[in-house]
Specification:
By secondary structure, this protein is mainly β. The protein is built from no helices and 11 strands.
């Protein structure tokens, strides 16, 4: 059974940084696509960053240049480095892995980690 676990969320002031980590088990991680979604209060989840099994990345426009997604296949892990955080980045952040980016919404989701950015 596939398991995904996030860590690294917290409370930070605007302009600060956080690094989210995601560990996967029960799957050949190196063949999986991965992404970070976030769900702000009262809103639907949105994909903010993704990475293919080959390491190709893509980002939502609103976080481009501030967030960096990366992966370490040896550790079955994917990361989201976040810089210059803004109050509008406040959300629960979810790591998702799946066979393909196109169907990542239907992949395996972690439990989420809260990121709160104060102004």
């Amino acid at each position: 059974q596939v398991h995904v676990t996030e860590s690294g969320g917290g409370l930070v002031q605007a302009g600060g940084s956080l690094r989210l980590s995601c560990a996967a088990s029960g799957v050949t991680f190196s063949s999986q696509a991965a992404g970070w979604y976030r769900r702000a209060p009262g809103k639907r989840p949105e994909l903010v960053a993704s990475i293919t099994y080959a390491g190709l990345t893509d980002y939502k426009d609103s976080i481009l240049g501030r967030f960096t997604i990366s992966r370490d296949n040896a550790k079955n892990s994917v990361y989201l480095q976040m810089y210059n955080l803004k109050p509008e980045d406040t959300a629960v952040y979810y790591c998702v892995i799946g066979d393909q980016l196109a169907t990542l919404d239907y992949g395996t989701w972690g439990q989420g980690t809260q990121v709160t950015v104060s102004s």
